[in-house]
Design brief:
Structural class: mainly alpha
Radius of gyration: 32 Å
Distance between the termini: 57 Å
Number of strands: 4
Order of helices and strands: HHHHHHEEHHEE
Oligomer: single chain
Shape: elongated
Number of helices: 8
Largest sheet: 2 strands, antiparallel
Length: 208
């Protein structure tokens, strides 16, 4: 099933293992250069003697399937994950003739304002504009920054720019349409991915 064994695996399981077992180099023998060379060069002859004794006595040294990847449960789980990945790619195929940016997980397409793919050129342009300017007076303009897909999915509410998660909004709408007929009342509550009663932000807990 495997094309071969890596060199480090053979050294670890054969050479190093035989050094540390009973009769090995580190068990009751010296560690001088002569002792190491004698032990190492005698290994092929010891291997032939071992093979001959196994053939003579009819006793073979065999091991079972020790690799986790060979177990039936692991194979079934890997196959399930493969089907999940294929189903996701089928619904949101990234290999389409469309050259625009697209979020593979949510399927949202970026509009023309998104330019994050040119972040390197935008960064060089910002650095160029800083040449000869004072650090105390220079200001970074939002119009010169790279616009990501997350920034493009924002709306303005009461003069404030609010980020909207399309997937979270879709999930809330699905729950709302199944649980109540009053859609207007559902939109009176804040849409957030973390409980605002416990967190000031996704990474900052409120004081107890």
């Amino acid at each position: 099933m495997w094309a071969g064994l890596s060199t480090d695996l053979v050294i670890e399981q054969v050479l190093m293992r035989s050094m540390k077992t009973s009769g090995g180099l580190t068990r009751g023998r010296g560690m001088t250069e002569r002792q190491r060379l004698t032990w190492l060069l005698s290994m092929p002859a010891c291997g032939e003697v071992n093979r001959a004794l196994q053939e003579l006595t009819g006793v073979q040294y065999n091991t079972g399937d020790q690799n986790k990847e060979l177990s039936k449960s692991r194979q079934l789980r890997d196959m399930k994950d493969t089907h999940t990945a294929l189903a996701t790619m089928k619904d949101r195929n990234p290999f389409t003739p469309n050259t625009g940016l697209q979020n593979i997980m949510t399927g949202v397409h970026a509009d023309r304002s998104v330019n994050v793919e040119n972040a390197r050129d935008i960064g060089h342009k910002v650095l160029g504009s800083m040449t000869g300017q004072s650090m105390m007076t220079y200001t970074f303009r939002k119009s010169e920054q790279a616009i990501t897909l997350g920034k493009s999915s924002s709306v303005q509410i009461d003069g404030e720019q609010v980020q909207v998660d399309p997937q979270l909004l879709f999930q809330r709408l699905i729950i709302a349409c199944k649980s109540t007929d009053n859609m207007e009342a559902m939109f009176q509550y804040e849409l957030c991915c973390y409980p605002s009663a416990l967190f000031d932000s996704p990474l900052m807990l409120r004081e107890p």
